[in-house]
Specification:
By secondary structure, this protein is an all-beta fold. The chain folds into twelve domains: 34 residues, no CATH class; 76 residues; 80 residues, no CATH class; 81 residues; 80 residues; 82 residues, Immunoglobulin-like (Sandwich); 89 residues, Immunoglobulin-like, CATH 2.60.40; 85 residues, no CATH class; and more. Helices cover 2% and strands 53% of the residues. The strands form 26 sheets. Strands 11-10-13-16-15 form a five-stranded antiparallel beta sheet, with no helix packed on it. It has a five-stranded antiparallel beta sheet with strand order 20-19-22-25-24, with no helix packed on it. Strand 33 and strand 34 form a beta hairpin. The longest helix has 19 residues. The chain is extended and about 195 Å long. 18% of the residues are buried.
């Protein structure tokens, strides 16, 4: 037991040694202790932070070390904490720790700017106030510490105002009182409190004063009260006609002058406001004039208003109105100083007293006009007084006229008679004082009075006419005819003039053929003691002729005013220089009656005729009983000139081509041809006319250039395009020629030309000597360039190319069209021709020229070394292009022949042959197939396609083809599916060949048909129609069920109602099969659309017998 106990102790000691790190080297030497290495803990220094609560300053490997970091800068925070040589630094509740490595360490701290979270900004809501919180320009509800926050307060009320804005958390800075405040945000919620108060209202009162009213305006609206602090406008309205402003005063505020005596402003204060204005009355003085003045009156005006009084200092205008025939001598005043504005207007400044103006006038002597001179002595008196002459009233008027020697002539001036005085020879004179009115003059030869004869009487005061040449109730000799004149008043027509003798016999007086239109004579001598002249006159009025426009027009002939209805009118029209009359009445001439409902006779309708040789027109007609208005549209000539140009030798503006005897012109009418001959200076060309509205065609001759254009409707100054041509030099050789390029071309123009090179030559380059680009169009094989301003040379460089031989293998069968092979350089080619190496060659095949069953396999180029297939470049048809290879070659055109099959058509009808023709159509290729033989229906067709046979019968009304009568088989006897369609004229059988020969057997079926005829004993006009209303003849076959109509011709509907119609149907044996009586009435319009045809109709269906129709009618009365 002791031994075991000792071993246990050994184990215990050994375990302790292991756990305590002691080593036992030998029982003889005893235990030795190992001391662990301690490492230093360094701390980095900074003024922004400090390391505190460091658990150790030295530590051995594996020991745990802890510490804290105290950040000294309040605006910073820890970004990272590191310990050199340590991969992991732990942190828990602000305490950092790490395990000491086997080395010295340094604790380092990295700081960063402290991050603040946004904090709320609150403000209380107040009705009528809007508060905006801004950071910069952005509206916010929260901010971060340090942000500058702006508070904007907007008052939207009229009766409240800002009191305070406060905060317990921050200090507010006032930027604009009551509106804008700022503060710096803290790192916590900020609460703002807005306080407002009611604004008191103050009454506004204006003391009423005579001569002045006022109104208070707030924001443009009239008010009687306003809130404290508001700016108010006071508008005064002073009766300035009667008052002047004196002063104005206010209580409760101070007035600011806007316009003295008119407008003031003030701010409402803490009390009600009262304003008083004082004005001074203005004295008024009377205005008058001498109202007893003859021929004038006067009106006073102040500011364009009529007045009878005025205030001192105002401007008064006096306007004089004169009566006709009076003039103003002068206007004077002892009270005012007058200023003359014009002959009848004066002004003055009103003095402080009444004003009376004195007007002085005098009567004016007027000139009066000679309205008419009526010559009743033959029209050849040649008076020296004329219509339109004027004379001063009261002046002596003397004129002379010619007459027969030793006669007595009377002159009537407005019905006042004056005797003429014989001077000498045939000249007479008369004098009178000019009355105070316009005058009409009548010159007449009076019949001499006689002691014995007839007393002539007539009405002297008739307004419709006047009688001249005799005096009322005077005695005239009855030994000769009596002659006198009846002159109608304006608008009057003389219908008849009669003379009545003692015995009451009334005789119509006549007008001499050669005499004045107003002259009347008795038909023979007067055999009566008294003789009364009676005139039948009618006032018909008179009408005027008007021209809507007279510009450029010369009008002569019949006077246009006061034209008597029925009188003959002849108006001559001429145009002044620069205008042209219409050449016909169809254009440029029109007329219009003032009464749109007036029915004019033929003679009253104006006619227009233009005399082209004399260049005038004439309008003739009888005056209607209404006004007539004419519209004459004249053509206006427009001027033509041209701008001078130093490079023009001469310019001629002509009316025709220069070689057709032209005239030079300076104007032309719209759309007329104008010809302009232009000769430029040497070395220049005229290339056109610049004017936009001139569209000229050019005519070039050796010696001149001529333009032709239609004249526009405006004056024209021509401007020419004058250009100096560029000389283009070039040489030609046996290698090439040039076509299409002139020796001189115009600068700026694009010219195009061709180079025709010899075979075996190629064009290496084409250029101009000045470097201008020359372009080549491959499709047209043409060169072009823009002509430079300076003379140039065209340079063409060439070189030789090799020639090869082309062999063309054309198809010997299957293609009937031509094959056109063409080389760019060599032209049209035939087999064996020489072409250039690389030359572009093209050719085409006509797709319609391939024989049926043939198609194009391909086109190939064959050389010694290879065969090349060409690609078709055409969208439709066949077109090929290729370049000639470097060796002789063959153009090989190869065709495919399709596999063909035979279609044989046989008619197998028994006892008859009814097929008239069979045609074959390839539905796949859309080709018609001809028969191989004239005797049989045999066709060759592509075996893979669909066949369509069209079969026509000789008589399709009696015979038909059905599906049962058609058999389609292959040559081996197999049935072939087919379809049958038919029309009234032919049948179509369609089937697929499927590479088999086909036999078609057709059995034509004969129909059961019948015939209908009319009984020859019919006396009526009977028609037999089919369902298409066409006639059925006796040899027209009908099938059972076909419609038959019996039509009996009638003259009218009454023919139908007056008769009973009966149709009897009999068979060939004469047996009556049916009797019909229920005919119906039927009508149709005639073929030409004139009137109708009428029938009695009965309709039935054909039966299976030949039938005859007889129709009878019986009158209903029987």
């Amino acid at each position: 037991m002791k031994k075991r106990k000792g071993f246990a102790g050994f184990l215990l000691i050994s375990g302790l040694i292991l756990t305590t790190g002691l080593s036992l080297s030998s029982c003889k030497e005893g235990p030795t202790e190992t001391i662990p290495t301690s490492y230093k803990i360094n701390v980095s220094s900074s003024e922004d932070y400090e390391i505190i609560d460091l658990s150790k300053t030295n530590a051995t490997t594996g020991e745990e070390v802890s510490f804290k970091v105290n950040v000294l800068d309040s605006e910073k925070e820890i970004d990272e904490v590191t310990v050199s040589g340590v991969s992991e630094v732990k942190i828990e509740d602000g305490l950092y720790s790490f395990v000491m490595p086997d080395q010295d360490v340094t604790i380092s701290v990295s700081l960063k700017e402290k991050t603040y979270l946004p904090k709320a900004i609150n403000v209380n809501k107040v009705e009528g106030f809007e508060v905006k919180i801004l950071v910069g320009e952005k509206e916010v509800t929260e901010a971060k510490k340090g942000d500058l926050v702006t508070i904007n307060i907007l008052n939207t009320t009229e009766n409240k105002r800002f009191s305070f804005l406060t905060s317990e958390e921050v200090t507010l800075t006032e930027v604009k009182a009551g509106e804008i405040y700022t503060f710096t945000m803290i790192d916590s919620t900020v609460n703002l409190t807005l306080e407002v108060s009611e604004i008191p209202s103050r009454s506004l009162k204006f003391t009423e004063t005579t001569g002045v009213t006022a109104k208070f305006l707030l924001d443009g609206k009239e008010v009687t009260s306003a809130l404290e602090g508001k700016e108010v406008i006071l508008d005064l309205d002073i009766d300035l006609k009667n008052y002047t402003f004196k002063n104005i005063s206010a209580t409760g505020t101070e007035l600011e002058v806007v316009t003295e005596g008119e407008r003031y402003s003030f701010v409402v204060g803490e009390s009600d406001i009262s304003i008083t204005c004082e004005v001074t009355p203005i004295p008024v003085y009377n205005l008058s004039y001498n109202e007893d003045v003859i021929g004038a009156s006067l009106t006073y005006y102040v500011n364009d208003e009529i007045v009878t009084s005025a205030k001192a200092g105002v401007t008064v205008k006096a306007v004089i109105t004169l009566e006709e025939d009076y003039e103003l001598n002068n206007l004077t005043s002892s009270e005012a100083r007058l200023t003359k504005v014009d002959d009848l207007t004066y002004t003055f400044i009103m003095p402080a007293s009444n004003v009376n103006l004195l007007i002085s006038t005098s009567e004016i002597q007027k000139e009066y006009e000679v309205l008419s001179v009526i010559d009743l002595i033959g029209g050849f008196s040649d008076p020296t007084i004329n219509v339109g002459d004027t004379y001063l009233e009261g002046s002596e008027v003397t004129f002379t006229f010619d007459g027969a020697a030793e006669e007595t002539y009377s002159i009537y001036v407005n019905d006042v008679k004056y005797e003429s005085t014989f001077i000498e020879g045939i000249t007479y004179s008369v004098s009178f004082l000019m009355p105070k009115e316009d005058i009409d003059i009548v010159i007449v030869l009076d019949n001499p009075t006689s002691e014995t004869g007839s007393i002539i009487s007539f009405e002297t005061n008739n307004e419709l006419y006047k009688i001249y040449g005799i005096s009322n109730n005077n005695t005239y000799s009855n030994s000769e005819e009596l002659s006198f004149y009846v002159v109608p008043s304006k608008g009057v027509v003389i219908n008849n003039v009669y003379g009545t003798s003692d015995d009451g016999v009334k005789t119509e007086l006549y007008q001499p053929y050669y005499g004045d239109d107003n002259e009347y004579k008795t038909d023979g001598l007067i055999d009566s003691t008294t003789y009364k002249i009676e005139v039948e006159a009618e006032y018909v009025g008179f009408y005027s002729i008007n021209f809507t426009s007279v510009e450029g027009l010369i009008i002569s002939g019949t006077p246009l005013d006061e034209v008597l209805p029925g009188s003959s009118v002849s108006i001559r029209l001429e145009a002044i220089d620069g205008y042209r009359l219409p050449s016909s009445s169809y254009s440029g001439f029109s007329f219009e009656f003032s009464d749109p409902n007036y029915e004019a006779s033929y003679e009253e309708k104006p006619s227009y005729y233009y005399y082209s040789n004399s260049d005038y027109a004439e309008i003739t007609f009888n005056m209607p009983r209404c006004n007539v208005s004419f519209t004459i549209t004249l053509e206006k000539a427009y001027s033509i000139s041209y701008l001078e140009n130093e490079h023009l030798e001469s310019v001629r503006i002509l009316d025709t081509w220069p070689d057709e005897y032209p005239n030079e012109i300076t104007s032309a009418y719209e759309d007329e041809y104008v010809f302009v001959e232009v000769i430029p200076s040497e070395g220049y060309e005229v290339t056109g006319i610049k004017n936009e509205n001139v569209h000229a065609s050019i005519y070039d001759e050796v010696d001149y250039t001529c333009f032709r254009f239609n004249m526009p409707g405006e004056d024209l100054e021509l401007e020419f395009e004058v250009t100096k041509p560029t000389k283009i030099s070039y040489e030609e050789s046996e290698n090439y020629t040039i076509s299409g390029l002139e020796k001189f071309e115009l600068p700026g123009e694009t010219v195009s030309f061709s180079i025709n090179k010899a075979k075996g030559i190629k064009i290496d380059s084409v250029s101009l000597s000045d470097g201008t680009e020359v372009t080549y169009n491959e499709s047209s094989d043409r060169y072009s360039f823009v002509v430079p301003n300076e003379d140039v040379s065209l340079i063409v460089e060439t070189s030789a190319v090799d020639l090869v031989t082309i062999t063309i293998n054309k198809p010997t069968e299957g293609y009937s069209g031509s094959i056109s092979v063409q080389g760019v350089a060599s032209g049209y080619l035939s087999s064996g021709a020489k072409v250039e190496v690389g030359e572009k060659i093209s050719f085409s095949l006509n797709s319609y020229s391939f024989s049926y069953g043939y198609s194009l396999e391909g086109v190939y180029i064959i050389t010694n070394n290879e065969t090349i297939a060409l690609e078709n470049v055409a969208y439709y048809g066949y077109e090929y292009e290729f370049s000639a290879p470097s060796t002789d070659f063959t153009l090989d055109i190869r065709l495919n022949k399709e596999t063909m099959n035979t279609i044989t058509v046989n008619e197998v009808s028994e006892g008859y042959s009814e097929i008239s023709s069979v045609t074959c159509y390839d539905n796949t290729e859309y080709e018609s197939i001809s028969s191989n033989s004239y005797d049989t229906y045999e066709f060759e067709m592509i075996g893979t396609n669909t066949c369509e046979l069209t079969i026509r019968l000789k008589d399709s009304e009696i015979y038909e083809i059905t599906e049962e009568g058609i058999e389609v088989k292959t040559s081996s006897g197999e049935n072939v599916e087919f379809t049958l369609t038919s029309t009234s004229n032919y049948y179509e059988v369609t089937f697929d060949l499927n590479n088999e020969d086909i036999i078609v057997n057709i059995n034509v079926n004969k129909l059961e048909v019948y015939f209908v005829s009319e009984d020859p004993s019919n006396s009526l006009d009977v028609l037999i129609w089919n369902e298409n209303d066409t006639t059925i003849y006796s040899d027209d076959p009908l099938k059972v069920g076909d419609t038959v109509k019996i039509m009996v011709s009638l003259d009218s509907y009454s023919d139908f109602t007056a008769n009973t119609f009966k149709a009897t149907i009999t068979n060939e044996e004469g047996e009556v099969l049916y009797t019909f009586i229920d005919f119906k009435f039927y009508s149709e319009s005639s073929y030409y659309g004139y009137g109708y045809y009428y029938y009695a109709k009965y309709e039935f269906q054909m039966i299976n017998q030949n039938i005859t129709i007889k129709v009878e009618i019986t009158p209903v009365s029987e």
